[in-house]
Specification:
Chain lengths: 233, 233
DNA sequence: ACCTGAACACCGTTCAAGT
DNA sequence: ACCTGAACACCGTTCAAGT
């Protein structure tokens, strides 16, 4: 579904007299203005309230004040709506990560890796349902062509470069970068997932501990791969 | 719902003349014999085919050859059916783990930890949909009172004791056991989850690699917490 | 005691008809 | 061009009625 047919200002079509401001609320008569946007926002809200499964096209339509069939003029299926929601969430996630990284020391790649991990975990703990929607597949027909995959691939590349730099600077005591990378991701993703999937209570981690524990666990991993022996027990 | 009212052989009720063998298939006329069991098996199959979301009470009823309302005589809700399915899967999971552990060296707790991690990962990779159902909550009304939680808690205890023993024997270079434990679980769970959630392709791990990578990642973690420096890069 | 089958309130999705 | 509203095939769940 290539939807790339909206050049910003060119294409002088047939004369449209009563076009007015096109931005005023105007009491929403019949044509809605920006139903697509409103539907995405409603769905984001539903995700926040009850998780990905709680999103229904009909409820989103209800909240947008339109009939049940209206959303299908903008999204070919529920999955497509979910996809748009995931892209929005992924955008926010990425923005937060990059903001955190821009405030991190430039000369210390391992420190930057830690910073990235922390930002990742903090966002995931604060937005568990949104994190879930960008993490679990089954909301994506084609893994390709999706902006989510795009953003994600760039984050992966970023991590890879950081670790490579850390190794080049002699910060690591292990050489198999790919292994370190996947282990690091598994650790961080697993921690975030444990939170989402409700595992912490049975591991003795309370809600208040979670943030501190996240930091501790990340540091344990970094100490495990870093060259300096660090403090012992 | 306390369902503890079936003493094996006592309770001589009112005389029941035509009770016969009560075990022969007998061409299933109207009363089904063991619909509960058949429904669980059908649901397990559905989980295997399309994941937890693919389970519908009606489809399970269809496969069992009964009407849509019949399952509700055995399970009060879809969630209750899912719960029973999860308990079955958890039983199998635990059995496999324990079988692997019984073949592991007794004197080497860290080695046993490795063995447990491997068995965990192997089962999760071979049974991704069943693993998902026992890992994600939202199939459990009450985390308590469930056999799943029971089995799970025992596995957690087991791990805890192993690591404590490893520390007591001087195998670990870190002393905060709880931290090690949670990090280890996050790593292993995260790896299994990455598989389920379809992350491996974008991390350059192919299906054939996955088993070997699991082992590598686990070893990397163990090297990170073990006392012996081991081989460097 | 267990099962049927119709019923209800929900979904996702389609499509003629309206504006 | 966008939206309505009825329709269809699905759900989960309930309940009288059957065996």
């Amino acid at each position: 579904m290539p939807a790339a047919s909206k050049p910003p200002a060119a294409k002088a079509g047939p004369a449209k007299p009563r076009r007015r401001n096109a931005r005023a609320p105007a009491a929403r008569p019949y044509h809605h203005g920006d139903l697509r946007r409103v539907l995405i926002d409603a769905a984001l809200q539903l995700v926040g309230e009850g998780g990905p499964e709680a999103v229904s096209v009909r409820e989103a339509a209800r909240r947008a004040g339109v009939s049940p069939g209206a959303p299908f003029r903008h999204f070919p299926s529920r999955d497509a709506l979910m996809n748009a929601v995931a892209e929005e969430a992924q955008r926010r996630f990425r923005a937060e990560i990059e903001a955190a990284l821009s405030a991190a020391p430039a000369g210390d790649p391992l420190g930057r890796f830690r910073c990235l991990g922390l930002a990742y975990l903090r966002w995931a703990m604060k937005n568990p349902t949104h994190f879930e929607i960008i993490s679990s597949r089954r909301f994506f027909d084609h893994d390709r062509a999706s902006g989510v995959s795009q953003d994600n691939a760039e984050l992966i590349d970023l991590t890879e470069r950081m670790l490579a730099e850390a190794f080049a600077q002699g910060q690591l005591r292990v050489g198999d970068l790919k292994r370190v990378q996947i282990a690091g991701r598994a650790l961080i993703y697993g921690f975030a997932r444990m939170n989402i999937d409700g595992h912490f209570p049975r591991w003795g981690v309370t809600g208040a501990d979670a943030g501190r524990t996240a930091e501790d666990v990340l540091d344990l991993f970094i100490e495990g791969i870093a060259k300096v022996p660090g403090k012992s027990a």
